[in-house]
Amino acid sequence: MHVHILGICGSFMGGIAAIAKSLGHTVTGSDKNVYPPMSTQLTDLGISLTEGYDTKQFEPLPDIVIVGNAMSRGNPAVEYVLNRNIPYTSGPQWLLENLLKDRWVLAIAGTHGKTTTSSMVAWILEATGLEPGFLIGGVPENFGVSARVGASPFFVIEADEYDSAFFDKRSKFVHYRPRTLVLNNLEFDHADIFPDLAAIQRQFHHLMRMVPGNGMAVYPAADENLMAMLEQGCWCEQQSLGNDWQYKLINNDGSAFDVIHQQQTVGTVKWTLIGLHNVNNAMMAIAAAHHAGVQIDDAISALASFKNVKRRMELKGKVANTAVYDDFAHHPTAIQTTLDGLRNNVGKERILAVLEPRSNTMKMGVHKDLLAHSWAAADEVFVYMPDTVDWSMDEVVQHSNNPVHVFNCTDELLKSLMRTQRQVSEPQHILVMSNGGFAGIHGKILTQLGHSNDG
C-alpha cells in the first residue's frame, strides 16, 4: 500500500512514517519545512519527501493519506484530498488500525515527563529481552531512533493529549487503548485547544474508560487533578506512587534512590540522571514494566544503563569551567523541576538560565504568573521574547527574586549572556530551555566559549 503523510517531519508523524515503512508499505510525505535531522532519518529509510503542499505530490495517487494535526482547512494538499475523495485518516487512528489493536500497549500520559518515562519503559523492556516496539516524541539515546515496530506483543507509546487532526478533535491518546496506563501528572496546558483544566480532565477520562478490566493504571496519589479525574470512574487495577510504590532518596540530586514496593525496600537505582522529576518518572516506569511481567530488580538494573533522551538536560559541551545544557522545558513546572535538579547536583555553582517561552500556551501568557517562581534556583535568567509575543514580561521581572534580562533578539541575548559568563572564573552552568531550535543558540554559546561543537 502507498501511504502518503502530510506533516511528516514532526516527531510523531516521522515515527508513523518509520513504522509504516517497517510494515512493508511504500511511504512518501511532505511538510512545510523539510530539514535535518528528521529529513535525514526519513530519506535514509527510503522515504521520498516533498517540501511544501503543492498538489503535484499526489502523483502517483496514494492509497491513503495520513493527515498530521498541524494540517488545517485551506491547505492546498488538504483541499485536494477532500475534493477528490482520497481515503484519509489521522496518525493515531492509522496506528490503532494497523498496529496497536494487536499489541499490549503501555501508554504514558501526563502534562510532563511523557517522553522520558516512555523511553525508560522501552529501555527496561529492551534490557530484559522483551524487544518492544515504541513510538516516542523524542530520540532515546539508548535506541537512537524515535520509533520501531518491535518483535514482541509489547508496544510503548507516548500518549499525547493534543488533538488528532482537523477532522478529529479528540486527544491522540484515545486511539491507543492501553492495557498499562501511566498517568504522570495533570496540569492545565495546551491553552490553544483546551479552554480549561476540566476539558483536559474530560479527555483523560475518555482514555481511562478504555483501559480493560485486566489492565492497570499507575499514578501519583498526591496529584489532586488526577485524583479528581479518577473519581469519575476507573474499572481497572490501580496502583499509586505514594501508596503501592515509594522511594527514598540516597543523594539529594536524585542520582541514587531506594525503590520501595508494598512497604518493602526492593533495590537501589544508581544512574546518571538527576532531578526529583526523573525519580518520579523512574518509579512510574518500574511500575509499568512490572505490570508487563518484568521483575522489579531487573527493572532497577536496566535503569543503571539508561541514557536519557536528547534535549533532556543534554550536555551539549563543556569549555574550561562552563557547561552548556539543552532542555525541552517549556512549562513553569518543567522549568522549576529542571532547575531544581541541576541546583541539587551542582550545589552553589553558578547557574545561568536561558529561556524561550515558545509553546502556544506560553506565547499566550497563560502561565506568566508562575514564571518568576519557576526559575528561582537560577542565579540569573535570560529570556527571549520576540515581537510576535503579545504580552509583556515586565510584571514577571518585577516579581522575580533573581536578576532577569529580557531580549527580543537572540544575538543581543547572546552578547549579554557571554558578558555575564565572563564576570567570574568559578564553575558555571548555562541551561538553555526551549521546545524549539532557539536559533541554534547552543552552538553559538559554545563557539563564543571557544569551542566548536558538532553535536
TrEMBL record:
Keyword Cell division: yes
SUPFAM superfamilies linked: MurCD N-terminal domain (SSF51984), MurD-like peptide ligases, catalytic domain (SSF53623), MurD-like peptide ligases, peptide-binding domain (SSF53244)
Pfam family, one: Mur_ligase_M
Keyword ATP-binding set for record: yes
Catalytic class of the enzyme: ligase
Keywords assigned: ATP-binding, Cell cycle, Cell division, Cell shape, Cell wall biogenesis/degradation, Ligase, Magnesium, Nucleotide-binding, Peptidoglycan synthesis
Residues reported to bind ATP: 110-116
Cofactor(s) needed: Mg(2+)
EC number: 6.3.2.45
Tree of life domain: Bacteria
Residues annotated as domain Mur ligase C-terminal: 311-435
Catalysed reaction, written as an equation: UDP-N-acetyl-alpha-D-muramate + L-alanyl-gamma-D-glutamyl-meso-2,6-diaminopimelate + ATP = UDP-N-acetyl-alpha-D-muramoyl-L-alanyl-gamma-D-glutamyl-meso-2,6-diaminopimelate + ADP + phosphate + H(+)
Domain Mur ligase central per the UniProt entry, residue ranges: 108-289
Pathway participation: Cell wall biogenesis; peptidoglycan recycling
GO MF assignments: UDP-N-acetylmuramate-L-alanyl-gamma-D-glutamyl-meso-2,6-diaminoheptanedioate ligase activity
Domain Mur ligase N-terminal catalytic residues, every copy: 2-97
Function comment: Reutilizes the intact tripeptide L-alanyl-gamma-D-glutamyl-meso-diaminopimelate by linking it to UDP-N-acetylmuramate.
HAMAP family tied to this protein: Mpl
Family: Belongs to the MurCDEF family. Mpl subfamily.
NCBIfam families per record: mpl (TIGR01081)
Protein name: UDP-N-acetylmuramate--L-alanyl-gamma-D-glutamyl-meso-2,6-diaminoheptandioate ligase
